Amino acid sequence: MRALLFDGHLRYDPHYPDPVPPDGHVLIRVTKAGICNTDLEIVRGYMGFSGVPGHEFVGAAQGGEWDGRRVVGEINLACGQCETCLRGMPTQCPNRTTLGIDRHNGAFADYLTLPSVNLHPVPDSVSDEQAVFVEPLAAALQTLHQTHISPHQRVILLGAGKLGLLVAQVISLTGCDLTVVVRHQRQADLLAGWGIPTARAGELAPRSADVVVDCTGTAEGFKEALNLVKPRGVVHLKSTYHGLPQADLTRVVVDEVRIDSSRCGPFEAAIRLLARGLIDVEPLIEARYPLAEGLAAFERAGRQGTLKVILDMA
């Protein structure tokens, strides 16, 4: 099969071995896949990953009860037997591998395998390009699972990138008083189209938000979140950090700020929102590339301010 392979260097391999699904796994022919910030970090050495990256995808299952069905798949391959799994938290399984991130080949290829329990059918009302966004939209929804946001609250979101724009749409559904801090005019235009107010850095009053959601993944973003949150407010961390950022933890203690965080989320809910037209994802697509031009796609995705770049396996 064709694949993008990372083994210290990202390269295109037109003759990579086809995967063989173990018992309980399903072979999936990938149709489309999205490049996210985690993929960009992987080719810079994140997680020490070697193999086929990619975890945002839609494809057609082959064989068994799933044969021919369009599917998306949860990315954590849990053991199903440990205490954490038995408590209903498979995404936190200490024995898990992760599609395209940790010891399991991912979606930037013609085929991948996943356990059948990880699969979710895609309804006809959701297009392939919309379905590519199910995984990051599920992650956005997990924000509300970890942090309750009331319609009465003042919320500020930092980091209006690929994930941040999805999180903003999800939070907006609560009816809260939401403002998103933007750096680029395109971000402001997209948010205005969804009726979400925006501001530039430095325009918002310190200690003015009940909840600050930090999607920047930077120490500077966390610092600004602490500056904007009220005493006894909540800072929700929605991005992983490169390295070990410094933070004013004394401020956290003195102002009794609660720190929440979230990662992977509910696929079924994400699919429902897309099927009902409640989340708008098509404007987030920046460019489309065939798999053979995957290196150019990664270069485009890595440019500052770029939104979603999609690989088309067809």
Short description:
The chain is α/β, with parallel strands linked by helices and 314 residues long. It contains ten helices and 18 strands. Strand 1 and strand 2 form a beta hairpin.
Strand-helix topology:
Blueprint: E1 3-6, E2 10-13, E3 25-35, H1 37-42, E4 56-62, E5 70-73, E6 76-77, H2 83-86, E7 97-99, E8 103-104, E9 111-115, E10 119-121, H3 128-131, H4 134-146, E11 154-158, H5 162-172, E12 177-182, H6 185-193, E13 198-200, E14 209-214, H7 219-228, E15 229-237, H8 249-254, E16 258-261, H9 267-275, E17 285-290, H10 294-301, E18 308-312
Parallel strand pairs: 7-8, 11-12, 11-14, 12-13, 14-15, 15-16, 17-18
Antiparallel strand pairs: 1-2, 3-4, 3-9, 3-18, 4-5, 5-10, 6-7
Helix pairs in contact: 4-5, 4-9
Tally of individual domains? 2
Q: What name is given to the CATH topology of the largest domain? A: Quinone Oxidoreductase, Chain A, domain 1
Query: Span from first to last CA?
Result: 13 Å
Unreliable sequence segments: none
Query: What is the total tally of β strands?
Result: 18
Overall mean pLDDT stands at 96
Element order: H for helix, E for strand: EEEHEEEHEEEEHHEHEHEEHEHEHEHE
Which superfamily, in CATH terms, is the homologous superfamily of the largest domain?
A: Medium-chain alcohol dehydrogenases, catalytic domain
Share of helical residues: 25-40%
Multimerization state: single chain
